[in-house]
Design a protein that fits this description.
about 0% strand, mainly alpha
Length: about 130
């Protein structure tokens, strides 16, 4: 006798998604590094204030959240769009850190665009060569 098409096989019930340790550890590590570096740039060797600490915590948390989100959706994106997203995230982070060192907005934008373009090319190469 034939089984009905809607009967589920054993063990195919909906399961909660579990994230690997690397999927959250890497964004948290990058966020801590960016937050620490932003705080040390703004501090300039002086005494740490609450505002400087808040800048570091918020900027690190934002980067960690964006990295975690991008890591979740990167497999559903085409290689070109995923590479552009990584390039934009990297370039904006570098431009932000450079702007904290009292450089002009134009200099920070140019450096962010150049490093973002470099990351776009590197990420595209990685995604394109590993494509099935």
């Amino acid at each position: 006798m034939a089984a009905h098409a809607s009967v589920q096989a054993r063990g195919t019930h909906a399961r909660a998604r579990h994230h690997s340790a690397l999927s959250w550890a890497l964004p948290v590590t990058l966020g801590v590094i960016l937050g620490w570096y932003a705080t040390s740039i703004v501090r300039g060797g002086g005494v740490l204030t609450g505002t400087q600490l808040a800048l570091g915590l918020v900027s690190g948390a934002v980067l960690a959240a964006l990295c975690f989100g991008l890591g979740r959706v990167q497999t559903r994106l085409p290689a070109e769009l995923a590479a552009a997203a990584y390039g934009a995230l990297f370039g904006s982070s570098v431009g932000f850190l450079y702007s904290l060192s009292d450089k002009s907005v134009l200099a920070a934008s140019v450096l962010g665009l150049l490093t973002g373009a470099g990351m776009l090319l590197a990420a595209f190469y990685c995604f394109y060569t590993r494509k099935d």
